[in-house]
Amino acid sequence: MNFSSDTSAPAHPAVLEALAGVNNGMQPSYGADEVTTRLRDELTRVLETDDFDFWLCASGTAANALALSCFCPPMGAILCHEEAHIARDERSAPEFFTGGGKLQLLPGEGAQIDETALREAIAGIKPDFVHETPAHVLSLTNLTESGTAYPAAQVKHFSALAKDAGLTVHLDGARFANALVSTGASPAEISWKAGIDVLTLGLTKTGAMGCEIIILFGSARQKFNELKARAKRAGHMPPKMRYLAAQAIAMFADDRWLSLATTANQRAREVSNLLCRDGETELVHPVHGNEIFVRLSDINLRALTEAGATFYPWIGGSHRLVTSWCTPQETIDRLSELLA
Ligand SMILES: *Cc1c(COP(=O)(O)O)cnc(C)c1O
Asked: What region holds the Aromatic amino acid beta-eliminating lyase/threonine aldolase domain (predicted)?
């Protein structure tokens, strides 16, 4: 019963097969290979547009920091939620990659930015006032750090507020597939059609071995050469890019990424229902995706601990449990018996 993280899960076998499948012959390096070209076609299908450029990275932190550094100057700020991964879990990589850019933290329930706080932050931007640090970017996360999902309409609404003030809108999609399954939105509806300029689309937590895609949409494509130069300077230009591209192709084939996320989300619902059956365990946030934040009853906490289940303590005495594409049915059955 391992609920530690979706990054603890193995890669899906189809990903490893895809790696073996591209492991023959010479190919041009640094993304000029035919596998990366094929990925472009797959992305065109998945995103329902060809007005984009993309780059591949092996970690989400690199993807976020590189993406943000193209849009936030050293003397600018990035608006984000106070619990955002870029603020809490990236060892100041966004600040480092932007060369000093500042994160301006906003409050809100369930790690979703509060609209009033966002409006105030945007209204407070004074580009010519020398003493303050004007925001250049709004960064949203979907699924959020509390496992909740912004519906497409909300993303669109927040993007519109930001864009009216000339901001670029970034979406941290480390669990993008879980958000798609949860909201029922298409990748297009909840990204470029909702005003997202730059998307970091994570596939690692969904079931890849290590593959994150930075996608620049529309006018953000002007930054593509700069993105590549920054990736190179930061040491994030994988020479054998075909092996990253192959992972993504395997995930998009037959909409595998969505079926894997469907399983992960379903398992999370089952686990949370089982935990809450005792009437004393309480969810801290609604379970929209594959993460469960709960205040466990003493008896459930003891039962889980004694059975050797793995999960993390979270803020304020709560706990976080995460399911993944490979959380087996047997785990649910065992949990059901244990808690009964
Ligand atoms: C996991 C995660 C990332 C990426 O983390 P890495 O460990 O660097 O791959 C980024 N954003 C969010 C919201 C995440 O949960």
From this structure: 3-296
